[in-house]
Write a structure and sequence with these properties.
The protein has one domain: at5g01610, DUF538 DOMAIN. The protein is globular, with a radius of gyration of 17 Å. The chain contains 3 helices and 9 strands. InterPro entries: At5g01610-like (IPR036758), DUF538 (IPR007493).
């Protein structure tokens, strides 16, 4: 077995062990991100050797940072220190519209700020808003909120 293969195998084992023995909240903190980026109803997550993070929730849910955010049942992103890039499965409500969150970045933890890239704009939030998320809406509540939003859009 070559040295490169052995290193890759060891790294893979470490990542799998890390994913199996700690919570997503611990992983986020070890990567310079706040623990409260994901709600407590995470049932499983995986992190591959290229840094692709896949988080599985019990069900889609709504939570609130400064505005409401919607989590699909599966959220994917590329994880590196202080960054979740290329996010899929996470949307943020802005002025009655649900916009996909593309990236989440903490460039300087001492600033107390976190940056949400929602495509058309960048939004800075206080890191203190991102404690462990405990408020999670049920699927029926989410569907009702989305139905109300569609009705509002149709009336415009």
């Amino acid at each position: 077995m070559s040295l490169t293969s052995m290193f890759s195998f060891t790294l893979c084992l470490l990542l799998l062990t890390h994913a199996a023995t700690s919570s997503i909240h611990d992983l986020l903190q070890s990567q310079g991100l706040p623990a409260g980026l994901f709600p407590e109803n995470v049932k499983a997550y995986s992190l591959d050797q290229t840094g692709v993070l896949e988080v599985h929730l019990d069900q889609p849910c709504l939570a609130k940072f400064e505005t409401r955010v919607y989590f699909d049942s599966v959220v994917r992103a590329n994880l590196s220190f202080g960054k979740l890039k290329g996010l899929e499965g996470l949307s943020q409500e802005e002025l009655f519209l649900w916009l996909p969150v593309k990236d989440i970045i903490v460039t300087d933890p001492s600033s107390g700020l976190i940056l949400f890239d929602i495509g058309v704009a960048h939004k800075q939030l206080s890191l203190s808003l991102l404690r462990i998320l405990q408020f999670v809406n049920s699927r029926s509540s989410i569907e009702k909120d989305r139905s109300n939003e569609r009705e509002f859009q149709e009336q415009r």
